[in-house]
Amino acid sequence: MSLFISTAFRASVVSAQSSKGKSGGSVAATYDTQCAKCHGKNGKGIESLQPPDFTDAKWQASVSTKALTDGIRNGKGVMPGFKDALSPAQLSAMVKYVRAFGAKPAAKK
């Protein structure tokens, strides 16, 4: 089942890339359409999927910028990589965008 979801998700990424190219869209729009499905619009993650909570200061401190960049570029676990969908500048901007969740006060449950 997770292989199917991952494959379907990759197909949507490739489709989006082919229609926009590497230069299309802002990092916030890319996050909202490609990442928020699992990581949530607020960065806390969809609990049932168990992605990292980007708002957690301990998580932010435990993950190096290189590891975060590599994870976005190459994927990890069921998360697909975005090396073919994001330019180097967009990848860098996405890392900064994810890091910014750690600077925001966590939303109350």
Short description:
The protein is mainly alpha-helical. It has 5 helices and no strands. Helix content is 59%, strand content 0%.
Structural summary, described in words:
- With 109 residues, this protein is an all-alpha fold.
- 59% of the residues lie in helices and 0% in strands.
- The chain has helices spanning 2-20, 27-39, 57-62, 65-74, 88-103.
- The longest helix is centred in the N-terminal third of the chain and has 19 residues, at 2-20.
- Residues 1-21 have low confidence and may be disordered.
Question: Topology of this protein?
Answer:
Elements: H1 2-20, H2 27-39, H3 57-62, H4 65-74, H5 88-103
Helix pairs in contact: 4-5
CATH architectural designation? Orthogonal Bundle
Which structural class do the helices and strands define?
A: mainly alpha
Order of helices and strands: HHHHH
Average pLDDT, to the nearest integer?
81
The first-to-last residue Cα distance is 30 Å
Search tags:
109 residues, globular, disordered N terminus
